[in-house]
Amino acid sequence: MDQNALAHRSIRQFKAQPIDWQSLVAAAQATSSSEFLQSFSLIRVTDPTLRQAIQAISTSPCITGNGELFIFVVDTARDIAQTPQAADLAHFTNWNAFLAGCFDATLAAQNMLSTAEHSGLGGVMLGSILNDPAQMINLLHLPKYTFPLLGLMIGVPDQTTELKPRLPQAAVLGENTYPKRVDLSAYDAQVSDYYTHRSSGARVESFTSLIAKHLHADQHHRDEIGAILKSQGFNLPQ
Predict the structure, then answer these.
(1) Helix or strand or coil: residue 201?
(2) DSSP 3-state assignment of 3?
(3) Integer Cα distance of 26 and 23 in angstroms
(4) Within 13 A of 178's CA, how many CA atoms are on the CB side?
(5) Integer CA distances (angstroms), 233 to 57, 70, 77, 94, in order
(6) SS3 of the chain: helix, strand, coil, percent, to 5
(7) What is the pTM of this model?
(8) Do residues 181 and 159 make contact, with C-beta atoms less than 8 angstroms apart?
(9) Which of 130, 86, 114 is nearest to 4 (CA)?
(10) What is the 3-state secondary structure of 108-142?
């Protein structure tokens, strides 16, 4: 077992050092793809003003600091552009196409991050760009049949962070059926200990309290995602 695979830590502070981002893009492109349609696009964001606007949506301060920012986009527009105008576009706008694009984009982002970590770099996923998908679409000038799924910051780490404890394997792994429910009190205490003693941003927190916070968290514009996808040309009936 490669221990690097078990040592992921989110890094949000980066040194002002250039990285070989082209090789990371190549790693993203080399990822497995549904039906080899490669239904995602990457946007490397270098404009400081644009990064400031994205930071306002995400609220993640690292976006306007050092490091490379990539936005991963579900993209069926490229396939549609190669399709005869008279063709039925349902196969590129339905649930299957959208989910395939989500899979492609997510796997590509993870492959890019894993490659970066194996090279001594660090990074953090930014699902928070979904706080305002419509504004992200406007900022990035995204055409119909695309959707901004997640962001990724990557760079030379300028901080040391502790390993965050994961759920016990028995809670997430079932054999031939859904996992049995297990007592998470010990894990709750482990998470509480992690937040109490971590070197950066220590606070009183536990797994139970995180779930409770999620129940009352501001969803921003995420409840509008269905309508936004429809306006982007996707046909995703209930």
Answers:
(1) coil
(2) helix
(3) 5
(4) 2
(5) 23, 24, 10, 9
(6) 45, 15, 40
(7) 0.93
(8) no
(9) 114
(10) HHHHHHHHHHHCCCEEEEEHHHHHCHHHHHHHCCC
Q: Identify the helix (H) or strand (E) that includes residue 58.
A: helix 48-58
User: What does the alpha-carbon distance between residue 157 and residue 120 come to, in Å, rounded to a whole number?
Assistant: 8
- Provide the CB-side half-sphere exposure for 200 (13 A, CA): 12
Alpha carbon 234 to its chain centroid, in Å, reads 21
Give CA torsion, residues 199, 203, 206, 212, to 10 deg.
Answer: -140
Show the tokens assigned to 193: 């200990």
Residue pLDDT, tens place only, 177-200: 999 999 999 999 999 999 998 888
Place of tokens 């039925």: 88
Nearest alpha carbon to residue 102 among 36, 69, 138, 150:
150
pLDDT tens digit string along 23-45?
Answer: 999 999 999 999 999 999 999 99
Per-residue model confidence as pLDDT tens digits over 89-128? 899 999 999 999 999 999 999 999 999 999 999 999 999 9
State the residue for tokens 């830590």: 9
Task: Let me know: does 155 contact 13? Beta carbons within 8 Å.
Answer: no
Distances in whole angstroms, Cα of residue 180 to Cα of each of 20, 163, 169, 177, 189: 44, 26, 11, 9, 20
- What element of type H or E holds 51? helix 48-58
- Residues 74 and 107: their CA atoms lie apart, in Å, by 12
